[in-house]
Each structure stands twice: as C-alpha cells, then as structure tokens.
Automatic annotation (TrEMBL):
Alphabetic keyword roster: Cytoplasm, GTP-binding, Hydrolase, Magnesium, Metal-binding, Nucleotide-binding
Residues annotated as signal peptide: none
Pfam families hit by this protein: DUF1967, GTP1_OBG, MMR_HSR1
Cross-referenced CDD domains: Obg (cd01898)
Compartments where located: Cytoplasm
Protein name in the entry: GTPase Obg
Main localization category: cytoplasm
C-alpha cells in the first residue's frame, strides 16, 4: 500500500535530575557535596533513507518518544544521556509543523537529517553549588523537559520525468513499455490510485526515472477527487510527458484535455508552468483520419510543444519519444545546475531554531499572584522546601530574573499569596540574597 501522508507526535527525552548527595566515607566525617549532574535527554531525528518508498509505518504508530536522561549519581558521577530516537522516511519527504503549517525541512537526498525535537538538558547536582560560604548545599536542579512537537509528513516522489494526463489515456501502458515497471492496467477510470515508478534505460547507457502520475480530473487543483494528493508528486519532476488520447475514444477533445489539465497544474503551483513538456499523442494506431492528425499536430505546434505520435499498444514511435525526453532532461538538468551555481548549497543536517522560551508570566486572579512559565517550572521542581539554603537560592534566582521586581510592580504586599505551579507561598521580601 502506498502512503504519502502521515501525522505524528514527537517527544524528546527529559533531562535527568541532579541529585543531593554527600561523601560518606570512613575517617571522613564531614565529607563535602558530591551529587552528580543528570544526563541529557535523547533527541528525535528524522532521516531520509533511499530504501523506503512510502510512509506506511507512520500510519500504524503515531506517537514517538526518545529516552530520558538518567539522574545524577553519588561521587560526582553524571547520569547517562538518553539515547537519540532516529525515524527513517523516504527521500522526498516534507516535514511540516502541524500547528503552524510551516514547512520545517525537505529531506531530498539519502542521509539528509532533521533534528525535530531537542532533548532536555540534565539538571545540576549539589556539588555544582558549593561555594566558600556554602559548604553543604542541600539542593540540586531538575532536568529540563524535552521538546514536543506534532508534525505532518508529506512524500513527494522524486522522478526525472512525469507522465501526465487524464484518466485512461494510456500512461500505465506506456510506463510498462518503456521500463521494467508492471503497473496494474485496465480499461476503466482511476485504475492507477498510486504513482508508479519505472527506470528507463537509454540507448547511450544513460538512465532516468519516470513516474506515472495518477489520472487527474477537472478541479484537481482545488482538491476535487484526489487532486492535491496526485499533483504533489508532479512538483519534483524536471520534465513532463503529457499523454493524450489522440483517437478520442471517449468522445473527448485531446486539445481541450491538454488545456484543462495545464490549467489545473498552474492553479496548483505557478512553478509548474516553467517545466518543459512533451506531447505524446497515444493510441495513434486507432486514429485513421489523417486530417484529424494534421489538425492535432498543428494545434500543439502553435503552442510550441514538441509533438510525438505514438502507440503504447504497438510500440510505434516510443523510441523517438524517449530519445527526445532524455535530451530534454539533460538540457533541463544543465539549466538547473547553472542556476544553482550562485546558490549556496544547503546543509545536509537541518535543525529547528531554538524556541523562544517563555521565561515567566505573572497575573493576578482572585487575590492570588500566579507565576507561570519555563523558568519557574524548572525552579519549583528543584526546590527543597525543608532547606533554608535551597529557599535562599530559589529567592535569588527569582530576583535575578525579575520575578520579584515584577510582583512589586503589580502591587504585591508582605503576606500576599504567590502561587508557582501548584505550590503556594506567603510573599516576604525579608530574604537578603547576599546572605
């Protein structure tokens, strides 16, 4: 089953906590602090793998979580960092932030890597807080939480040439003739519900990949039918072979079909208008009216589109068509390469920008001052309520980062209630951070 879209949620590992510990050895009655730091949480990476063809695995499992870092240990020993989580996707996968709709990465080449969620840093053990005036700190800090994100994965097939056309014009038959691909072929609409790929070997020893894009219908650019799902795969192709039913067996006008389908392409993405196209007039073995052939050929020459008469059923004209397509592909590749000379090569490793951390917010509700945010969340998890040393350190950090000042600006008074996360305090400004 071909799957080209999936939604998953990712959670990087939380950092391990630093610990409070003291040396307890024989003949060392007053050993100093030796609590170690916690380990870093594991990151979540998404990696392009050339051996994969679909996003099938992500339909059955949608939630992924990297390992947590271990807590620190005694004797100043650090906790072990959590293992990174690596998720493999096919080359050509787009990664999109589900909440914002912003594209985060486009993994095109094998081995391209994207750091989707960073693991939290490990907390500091109490040995880190020893000073000449604080010989036995009774506190440590908690590890940071790992990042969480919901993303959408979208696969755009990477092919050199795309076979384009309305349903039942013979694209699948043509692909089976020019390559080793064996797509399902039948005489009814929408036989092809998933793109097929085939490798065409040229007479000069060169080869290229051709994709049979499923048959489109009017309104595809607006999402009618499976329009957007199919059009997505055309964007990466370098050359388009527009297959038409020259015989008009279903009462359709080939020139009108061409116009309507190109209109759908250009409405979906203006860049598709720049892609070179070749017209493959198929089923010529069933067209016996020479005047009709001449009118058809003249119509496409007027549009400045190379026109080739073929029959996928008999093989007539196929060699000439593929030779022309191979030459057009080389010309297009040279043009794109020339354009890219002035463009800096993208990094193979793509990372998310550091998120803008909400340090803290203060609001008053029902007479209580509520302090929230990443800064105080980490602090409150590290607080030892039974240690005056820990409380003093807590107060210093709040003052250093402006929390105390903000509370005063909002009119807090001695004895008012402050709530940080689920913990309530009675406000006092009598703690001297210098002692």
């Amino acid at each position: 089953m071909f799957v080209d879209q999936a939604e998953i949620s990712l959670k990087a590992g939380d950092g391990g906590n630093g610990i409070v510990a003291f040396r307890r050895e024989k003949y060392v009655p007053d050993g100093g602090p030796d609590g170690g730091d916690g380990g870093k949480g594991g990151d979540v990476w998404i990696i392009a793998d050339s051996n994969l063809r679909t996003l099938m695995d992500f339909r059955y499992k949608r939630h992924y979580k990297a390992d947590k870092g271990e807590d620190g240990k005694k004797k100043n020993m650090f906790g072990k960092s959590g293992d990174d989580l690596e998720l493999l996707v096919p080359c050509g996968t787009l990664i999109i932030n589900k909440q914002t709709g912003i594209m985060l990465a486009d993994l095109v080449r094998p081995g391209d890597r994207f750091l989707a969620a960073r693991g939290g840093k490990g907390g500091k053990g109490n040995a880190r807080f020893k000073t000449p005036t604080r010989q036995a700190p009774q506190f440590a800090t908690a590890g940071e939480q790992g990042e969480e994100i919901e993303i959408m994965l979208e696969l755009k097939l990477i092919a050199d040439i795309g076979l384009l056309g309305f349903p039942n014009v013979g694209k699948s038959t043509l692909l089976s003739v020019i390559s080793e691909a064996r797509p399902k072929i039948a005489n009814y609409h929408f036989t092809t519900l998933t793109p097929n790929l085939g490798v065409v070997k040229g007479k000069g020893g060169d080869s290229f990949v051709v994709a049979d894009i499923p048959g489109l219908i009017e309104g595809a650019s607006e999402g009618v039918g499976l329009g957007h799902d199919f059009l997505r795969h055309i964007e990466r192709t370098k050359v388009l072979i527009h297959v038409i039913d020259a015989a008009g067996l279903e009462g359709r006008d080939p020139l009108d079909d061409y116009e309507k389908l190109n209109q759908e392409l250009f409405q979906y993405a203006k860049a598709l208008k720049e892609k070179p196209q070749i017209i493959a007039a198929n089923k010529m073995d069933l067209l016996f009216d020479e005047d009709k052939v001449a009118v058809l050929k003249a119509g496409f020459e007027e549009k400045q589109r190379p026109f080739y008469e073929i029959s996928a059923a008999t093989g007539a004209g196929i060699d000439e068509l593929m030779t022309a397509a191979g030459k057009m592909l080389k010309d297009e590749e040279q043009r794109l390469e020339h354009e890219s000379l002035n463009i800096e090569t993208a990094e193979r490793v793509v990372t998310l920008p550091q998120k803008d951390i909400e340090r803290f917010t203060v609001r008053k509700q029902d007479g209580i001052y509520l302090v929230e945010g990443d800064l105080v969340r980490k602090l409150i998890y590290s607080l030892n309520m039974e240690s005056m040393d820990s409380l003093l350190h807590f107060h210093r950090i709040l003052e250093k980062h402006g929390v105390i000042g903000t509370l005063k600006e909002m009119g807090i008074r001695e004895g008012d209630t402050v709530q940080i996360m689920e913990v309530e305090f009675e406000f006092t400004d009598q703690m001297d951070p210098g002692h």
